[in-house]
């Protein structure tokens, strides 16, 4: 498998999942800051010009965070990261969709790229405030549903945690947001795992 990522981007959640699965893969860096997602070779592989993408051993390419996470977890069931049963399965989809479609796309996109939402620079602070509000509210919802769980679906890590891993990395390590205690503690547990430490190292992420 070839895994396409950009350092510190949402692909870091899939990177985390791959390390947790401990399966062989080749990581290929596509630096968004240098526009490498628009180079013909990458567009040929993923016309969406986004990371993450996963080229599987049969040559087919998977895109979209939740689809990649789903395929990885269910392709290696012996690793225990695929949710068991219908209820856990739909809860995993529910949380991944919330992390990607709401927290990332609605919230962080406004914080990181305000110009995509308002052409005038005078409006950017307002757009970013709105993004911060969306993210903060969403983590409040996550906190309520989380309770005293160790991981988002209960006692065991699952594919769903990989989506929260990346949005929490952005919220706590990048934006230094003040989040509910149970959510911050949960991220501290994820961040302390050997898989996260390896991923941060391999992506060249340096903490201040
Ligand atoms: N819906 C996509 C979102 C992927 C996405 O937005 N990736 C960002 C990095 S976090 C990207 O590749 N951005 C490149 C660009 O916007 O040019 C998914 O679930 O994978």
UniProtKB/TrEMBL annotation:
This is Glutathione S-transferase. Gene3D superfamilies: 1.20.1050.10, Glutaredoxin (3.40.30.10). Residues 1-80 form the GST N-terminal domain. Signal peptide: none annotated. PROSITE patterns: GST_CTER, GST_NTER. The lineage of its organism: Bacteria, Pseudomonadati, Pseudomonadota, Alphaproteobacteria, Hyphomicrobiales. Residues 85-208 form the GST C-terminal domain. Pfam families: GST_C_2, GST_N_2. InterPro entries: Glutathione-S-Trfase_C-like, Glutathione-S-Trfase_C_sf, Glutathione_S-Trfase, Glutathione_S-Trfase_N, Thioredoxin-like_sf. It comes from the Bacteria.
């Amino acid at each position: 498998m070839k895994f396409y990522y950009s350092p510190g981007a949402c692909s870091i959640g899939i990177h985390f999942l791959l390390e947790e699965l401990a399966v062989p893969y080749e990581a290929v860096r596509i630096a968004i800051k240098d526009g490498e997602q628009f180079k013909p070779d990458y567009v040929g592989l993923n016309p969406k010009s986004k990371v993450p993408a996963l080229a599987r051993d049969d040559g087919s390419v998977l895109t979209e965070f939740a689809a990649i996470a789903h395929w990885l977890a269910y392709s290696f069931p012996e690793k225990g990261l695929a949710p068991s049963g219908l209820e856990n399965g739909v809860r995993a989809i529910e949380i991944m969709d919330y992390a990607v479609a709401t927290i990332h796309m609605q919230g962080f996109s406004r914080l990181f790229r305000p110009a995509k939402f308002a052409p005038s620079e005078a409006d950017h602070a307002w757009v970013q405030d709105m993004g911060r509000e969306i993210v903060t509210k969403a983590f409040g919802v996550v906190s309520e549903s989380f309770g005293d769980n160790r991981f988002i679906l209960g006692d065991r890590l699952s594919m769903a945690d990989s989506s929260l891993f990346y949005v929490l990395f952005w919220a706590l390590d990048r934006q230094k947001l003040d989040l509910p205690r149970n959510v911050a503690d949960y991220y501290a547990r994820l961040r302390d795992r050997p898989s996260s430490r390896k991923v941060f190292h391999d992506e060249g992420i340096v903490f201040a």
